[in-house]
Specification:
Distance between the termini: 80 Å
Strand content: 5-15%
GO cellular component, one term: cytosol
Number of strands: 5
Number of helices: 15
Helix content: 40-55%
Strand order of the largest sheet: 2-1-3
Structural class: mainly alpha
Radius of gyration: 25 Å
Protein name: (Mediterranean fruit fly) hypothetical protein
Largest sheet: 3 strands, mixed
Order of helices and strands: HHEEHHHEHHHHHHHEEHHH
Length: about 300
């Protein structure tokens, strides 16, 4: 039995489930590699109606349009993730993202982005934001690993949570939303490697004040038993491509605490903030004369 994709889209979920068993598949996909590979049957008309990528695949001048052989999807590693895409295309069924780990969420979001399913991408982004307060490190890794297209600027979406009435989702390309006050209270960030912690301090969406940035660096030094001239080892593997990192510091695998303190623009502090933080700090090891000079300059402002 064949079915027009437009007709399918207008059916209820119950009717779709009941009807699907009688529909003959006319295309198939290879998911995975080697002995773990699976062949999944599907329906061209339904897929084409649900995603413009599938529509181009089956109706354009591509090999897949006229070839009945299984179509390999090398960018799909796990059938469970591809199943999320199929269930959405077939039934408009939004995945239960609360049941998905952050690592899987990355892959689902990637596939949704690949097949131009913006609703899933948006919901994945929202779910990532909800992880922020509880798991800063994984969230930071997530936004660094995954590159979003410019078309996924989300400027007007608000997320309700238990702690806040709303969270604005802003530019989601290489960074994500954080609350700097929560960040200061989250001890897990001090487990980051030196370079990752350095990069974190420069994320514009954090909107850190200079005194907040100073406190973060000082806490990082205390917790990791570092002094000003000591190298902070960056935990990247030898085979990692350093060129892929943001051009924030020289492409080495270690950074000094002194380089972190160099990020601070002390002229943007108030005299009171400077007295309470840098002036009394034993970690920021500069001469009393230098500290006094900065304090006097701030008093003139």
């Amino acid at each position: 039995m064949a079915l027009n994709g437009d007709v399918w889209q207008n059916l209820s979920y119950t009717k779709k489930v009941a009807l699907l068993g009688s529909l003959r598949t006319d295309c198939s996909f290879i998911i995975g590699r080697g002995v773990n590979a699976k062949i999944i049957g599907a329906h061209k008309s339904i897929l084409s109606r649900g995603s413009t990528v599938f529509e181009s695949m089956f109706n354009g001048n591509y090999q897949e349009a006229n070839n009945n052989a299984p179509i390999p999807l090398p960018n799909v590693e796990d059938f469970a993730d591809f199943k999320v895409i199929l269930e959405y295309v077939y039934y408009k069924k939004m995945p239960l993202l609360d049941k998905i780990s952050l690592e899987r969420l990355k892959h689902v979001s990637y596939l949704a982005d690949y097949f131009l399913l913006d609703e899933i991408v948006t919901n994945c982004h929202i779910k990532v934001v909800k992880y922020a307060a509880e798991n800063v490190i994984n969230l930071y890794d997530f936004v660094q690993l995954f590159e979003y297209e410019k078309r996924h600027k989300l400027d007007s979406i608000y997320v309700k949570t238990e702690q806040r009435t709303s969270i604005p989702l802003v530019e989601f390309k290489n960074t994500c939303w954080f609350d700097s006050k929560e960040l200061l209270q989250n001890s897990s960030i001090y487990d980051l490697s030196g370079l990752d912690f350095y990069d974190l301090l420069l994320l514009p969406v954090l909107k850190l004040t200079e005194i907040e940035r100073f406190i973060l660096i000082e806490n990082y030094a205390k917790i990791n038993n570092l002094n000003m001239d000591e190298f902070v080892i960056n935990k990247v593997s030898d085979d990692e491509d350093i060129e892929d990192k943001p051009k924030l510091i020289s492409p080495t695998k270690e950074i000094t605490l002194n380089e972190m303190f160099d990020l601070i623009i002390f002229s943007k502090m108030t005299a009171k903030e400077f007295k309470k933080g840098p002036a009394s700090s034993r970690i920021w090891n500069i001469s009393p004369e230098e500290k006094l000079e900065i304090a006097l300059q701030l008093c003139k402002v």
